Automatic annotation (TrEMBL):
The chain crosses the membrane at residues 30-48, 54-74, 95-116. GO terms for molecular function: ATP binding; kinase activity; metal ion binding. Its cofactor is Mg(2+). This is Undecaprenol kinase. Keywords: ATP-binding, Cell membrane, Kinase, Lipid biosynthesis, Lipid metabolism, Magnesium, Membrane, Metal-binding, Nucleotide-binding, Phospholipid biosynthesis, Phospholipid metabolism, Transferase, Transmembrane, Transmembrane helix. It comes from Planococcus massiliensis. Belongs to the bacterial diacylglycerol kinase family. A divalent metal cation binds at residues 27, 75.
């Protein structure tokens, strides 16, 4: 890789980190999901999850955070493109939030299926 391409490659990580930081600073839902992730990781550690269970939990946590970041980005783009209230803008934002909710509910159900048998 040339120096220019390498520099651009590492700069893309910096931009991604800035996006994550901005979301954490401004979005309550991201902070909630991060707190939930900490609770799940601590619970998994105390429960003694198997390697496969850890893989599933990590995928669910990563997916949830990624969905939340995409939802936040979608909200920003919609707000920029349609600063005035518009039914289609509302639908787009609601649908993105709905995708987050679907993944959150599925993640919670999978988490319960992993943890409850180990607790009882």
């Amino acid at each position: 890789m040339t120096h220019m391409k390498l520099s651009r490659f590492f700069r893309s990580f910096q931009y991604a980190a800035q996006g994550i930081y901005a979301a954490i600073q401004k979005e309550q839902n991201i902070r909630f999901h991060l707190l939930a992730a900490v609770v799940v990781v601590l619970s998994g550690w105390l429960t003694g999850l198997s390697k496969t269970e850890w893989l599933i939990v990590i995928l669910l946590i990563g997916g949830m955070l990624a969905f939340e970041l995409v939802n936040t980005a979608m909200e920003r783009v919609v707000d920029l493109a349609s600063p005035e209230l518009h039914p289609l803008a509302k639908q787009a934002k609601d649908m993105a939030a709905g995708a987050v909710l679907v993944f959150a509910v599925a993640s919670a159900i999978i988490g319960l299926l992993i943890f409850i048998p180990k607790w009882f």
